[in-house]
Known about the structure:
This protein has eleven helices and 17 strands. By secondary structure, it is α+β, with helices and mostly antiparallel strands. The strands form four sheets. A seven-stranded mixed sheet has the order 6-5-4-3-2-1-7, with helices on both faces. Strands 8-11-9-10 form a four-stranded antiparallel sheet, covered by helices on one side. The longest helix has 18 residues. It starts with a strand and ends in a 9-residue tail after the last helix.
Amino acid sequence: MSQSTWAVVFGGPSPEHEISILTGLQAERVLSDGGHTVVPIYQAANGAWFQVPAHSEAKDFLTGAPSGSKELDIVLSSTPGIYAKKGMGKKPLDIDAALLCFHGGVGEGGGAAALFNFLEIPATGSSVFAGAVGMDKLAFGGLMAQSGISTLPREAVLTSGTPSFPGPYIVKPRFGGSSIGIEIVEDIQTARTLLNSSAHLKAGAVLEPYRPELVDLNISFRTYPQLELTDLERPLRAEGEKTGLYSYQEKYLAGGGAGLTHAPREFPANAPEPIHQKARELATAVAEVTRLTGIVRVDLLWDEKTGDVFVNEVNTIPGALSLYLWAPKQPALRVLEDALIEARDHPAVLPPGGFGGGVALRAAGGIAGKLVGLDGPRG
Length: 379
């Protein structure tokens, strides 16, 4: 396995761009220190692609691609792949599989999975379909509810109509993550106003009941070599925090330079064993229903008074790839190696192509005939 060449891919146009950089740099360091040949690939916020120097630091990205980076071309035509410019020509990068470290945006939402499928480069994580469902809070919530998996009600913020549950509400970006853009409102009118005033909600928003008494819990699963779960984590909110929301600052900045491993938390969570068991059962159900693969984190909510546990969200490419949750059971190197082996040797199954054998094309007739009546009303 040490003869394989792995790409670590991070960045991308997303509000979580900086967190993706941190995840990618951590993963690159773990793999390279473990003796692997690693190609670090960075997508800038403007969409440009670069091969960046090995062992780069976070500060090197403050103004974009670090000094010494090499611009890359993404080629989807006859010989697809990722190409490094060389003189007047270009040379394809030899990559056995790519570790995707995108967070949020198109990258985590299935776009990167689709791109690497077209590039014919095996990549970690889920299929484009599962990734898209995981990123869409409305679709994911509906899937959970229809599958009988315990979850809080969730509805789209619409320009008319009345939600089926009373306020106050939490308003979240429909396609966002990392607690960016979340607001608490008293009524639906205020939520609608936010659709136009908040940059994070312009692509759509969802409503959930505001339940500040609920406790955040996290658990991660991975799907290779078999389904395996971590212990349950309880992130701790800042002292005096009254909103009941676990913020971006608490998720990524509270641990200082030491990262999520040293962020305030209980690990394992100080909760009764039945709660740990419920969490394991819910995470297993999420894995089965969504068909998500790779390294995934499931975010839960716990009502300490009733003992109810709800699935809140799923992170198809979680921050730091949840390595801090796996540390007591599996070393980071093993977790990343297994994810890459899964991608290389057991890729996500996609629907077969080529169905039809030309039957629809032969029966179609002329295209002009299909346009008859499509030119609008006649005077």
